[in-house]
Amino acid sequence: QVQLVESGGGLVQPGGSLRLSCAASGRIFTTRDMGWYRQSPGKERELVASITSGGSTNYADSVKGRFTISRDNAKNTVYLQMNSLKPEDTAVYYCNADVTYYSDSSSRYVTRNHWGKGTLVTVSS
């Protein structure tokens, strides 16, 4: 009943920039904490950055100073601006969000954690 859809991935050269977007849709009352994770082949999924509904942010040490997370609460959308990209940033990037929405099956508002399907970012020359 809630979908998170990422966009903005692609191929970029080292030192380049990309901006990822993730929009939540459905019968949403509010989105709470939102974040971006990434997973490279053979590695575990890791937190890249997170942002609370009030705008407080948290970043992995490996991306501090290069990535910026932001959100538009009116659009239930979270963004990840990625600058000075490195080959080691290559991964599938996943959106994650705690969403309060109306559940038809429960006939009430519930809060659940949701994942997007991911968008591939490849940093290569």
Task: Give structural notes.
- β7 and β8 (77-82) form a beta hairpin.
- The chain is built from no helices and eleven strands.
- The chain starts with a strand and ends with a strand.
- Strands 2, 4, 5, 6, 9, 10 and 11 form a seven-stranded mixed beta sheet that branches.
- 0% of the residues lie in helices and 62% in strands.
- With 125 residues, the chain is mostly beta strands.
- It has strands at 2-7, 10-12, 18-26, 28-39, 46-51, 57-59, 67-72, 77-82, 91-103, 108-115, 119-123.
- It is elongated and about 50 Å long.
In a few lines, what is going on in this structure?
The protein has strands at 2-7, 10-12, 18-26, 28-39, 46-51, 57-59, 67-72, 77-82, 91-103, 108-115, 119-123. It is mainly beta and 125 residues long.
